[in-house]
Amino acid sequence: MAVGAYAFKAIGLFAFDARPPSPKVLEALRLLPPALLGALIVVQTVATGEQLVVDARLAGVLAGGYAAWRKAPFVVVLVVAAAVTAGVRALS
Fold this sequence. Notes:
single chain, mainly alpha, two-stranded antiparallel ribbon, 4 helices, 2 strands, 79% helix, 4% strand, elongated
């Protein structure tokens, strides 16, 4: 699998070297990392095995997201998310 992943990356480098990607492709490539990170956060927050679970993790992520949206410093976002998660777990 590692050899396949490396080969895929190398093929991409050679293909883009021969012909530069179009602006639409570059824009799509710029949007992929935030979309994948968001999907990973959602899966890790509300999935346990093959089940969807709404618990304290979701409250913490939402609180941290709100703090980040309000442009709080990163450390504050982490503390808010951890505190809300701990508070919801303590209350339940």
